[in-house]
Structures are given as C-alpha cells and as structure tokens.
Design goal:
Spore Coat Polysaccharide Biosynthesis Protein SpsA, Chain A, 2 domains, single chain, globular, 10 strands, 9-stranded mixed sheet, about 20% strand
C-alpha cells in the first residue's frame, strides 16, 4: 500500500451492488491506497451500512467513515471529506464507478515524475450494465494550456478520475455547494491559483451512466440549476461574459430538446464517441 487517500461520498439512493463493484475495483489496484474516506451523506439504507460494515471488518484500518446527520449534497460532502483525508494526495472516486486496475499506479507515477503537478485526470469509458459493453467515451484535453483553455466552456476533467494534491484543493477554498457544478467551480478556482494540470489519454475509469441519465439532464428545472451554477463560475472571473452566454444558450437548447435526441447528442457528440 502507498500513502494515498481515496475520497468518496455515499448517499441513500446508491445501490449496494454498485458500491461492492467499486470497492472491489479499488482492491484490485496494482498500487493500493492505504485509506478510503467515505462521507456518509445523510442516513443510509441497512443494505448500504451492511456493505460498509463488511469491508471495515475485512480490511481493518482501511476505511474511515465520516457520517453526516442529514444529506447536504455532493459539494458539501466532499468539502467535509477533503480535510478528513490523512495523505497529501487524494484520488476521487464515485461509488457506482469502476477503476481500471492500473489507475492509481499510472497517476501516482505522473506525480513522481513531475513534483509541480497538482491535479491529473483521464478519459473515461461509459457503460450502462457492464463495463464490457461500453456505450460511449468522454475524452478530455491533455496538456496544461489545453486544459485551462477548454475549461472556459466545458469541464476539462472527468471528476471521478481526478487525483490531486490536498493542499491545492484547500488553497483554492475546497469544494463548495454549487449544484451540478461542484467540480467545475473547484477547477476554475484552482486554475486561477495557477495549479499545474494534466490528463492521461486513456480511460482509467469505467463510468456508470443510468438509462435515465439523459432524461435527468433535461427540463426547465435542470436548466435553471445549470444557469445558477454557471453564474457562480462566471463570478470567479475565470470565464468571460461571452463564455458564460455561449454555454447558457447551448445548454438551453440541449435541456429542452426531447430526451431521446439529448441521449444521442451526449453519446455521439458531447462525449467524444459512441460505441456500437
């Protein structure tokens, strides 16, 4: 094991079998983390508690649970979790995704190679039922200048793939509540602080996308949340007024188009490529 913390947030609607698959992928890592920080974002189901209890018993000292009395959302859960991490380097992971076996090894090697590196992510392959059946991919820019330019209109990192220095996150003000854009809001503040960024051009995480994901990313209520989040990003000064209105206008049409068309757009255009 190496000095690496894995930061996860778990809430009541997560499926226990997905958490099991996630945890197993962490145990299969060629270089394993010596700490998993799990923020329990509000009360969980008995089945979820059973999964956590099982792994705590089987791997004593590995899991650090941080229970919260009420559900506060991903941004606040991660804000609470970052200071709870004991190590200088933190790997983010979503509890319904699956890490490729060499994810930690490859990302830690980049930190060892470049002491100035602050955050590194990767591409993702997206699946619905099994990672053997990839339906789409999301490829991201690779170099520091490309990442910082791309971030003005779209996220340069796949959140569930990032590994970052704890200090760089805290120096930027940590995660904050920004519905739909907890990660976006953090990235732009980190970039304004001058962090050094990188992405690897390979999918190090298999990301689960629910069959109803594209429906959830539509409608007037979703657009209003997006607009409010984007306004918070604009107020950081990282993006221009043109960038703000450009993204708002595009999202307006994407959010209000039929769900089937939105699904096609995400798979075919917005997420790099669609797998047949």
């Amino acid at each position: 094991m190496t000095d690496l913390s894995v930061l996860m947030s778990l809430y009541i609607k997560e499926k226990p079998e997905y958490v099991e698959e996630c945890f197993q992928s962490l145990l299969r890592q060629t270089v394993q983390a010596n700490e998993w920080v799990v923020v329990e974002d509000g009360p969980l189901t008995d089945e979820l508690y059973a999964v956590l209890d099982k792994y705590q018993k089987e791997y004593p000292g590995l899991i650090k649970r941080v229970p919260q009395a009420v559900n506060q959302g991903l941004g606040i859960a991660l804000q609470i979790g970052v200071p709870e991490c004991s190590n200088d380097i933190i790997a983010r992971m979503d509890t319904d995704d699956i890490a490729r076996e060499d994810r930690f090894e490859k990302q830690l090697a980049e930190f060892a190679k470049d002491p100035d590196l602050d955050i590194i992510g990767s591409n993702i392959d997206e699946f619905e039922d099994t990672p053997k059946d990839i339906v789409a991919s999301r490829n991201v820019p690779l170099t520091d200048p490309e990442i910082k330019q791309y971030q003005k209109k779209r996220d340069s990192f796949n959140h569930m793939t990032v590994m970052y220095k704890k200090k760089a996150v805290l120096d930027a003000g940590n995660y904050q509540s920004c519905p739909l854009m907890e990660d976006t809001y953090l990235w732009v503040r980190m970039m304004k602080n001058g962090v050094k960024c990188k992405n690897l051009a390979e999918p190090l995480v298999f990301a689960r996308i629910g069959k109803d994901m594209f429906n959830r990313r539509g409608g007037w209520a979703y657009f209003k949340k997006y607009k409010n989040g984007r306004k918070m990003v604009y107020k950081t000064g990282y993006i221009s007024r043109f960038d703000y209105f450009y993204t708002i206008i595009i999202q307006f049409f994407v959010a209000l188009m039929p769900g089937a068309m939105r699904g096609w757009l995400f798979k075919k255009m917005l997420h790099g490529k669609e797998k047949k």
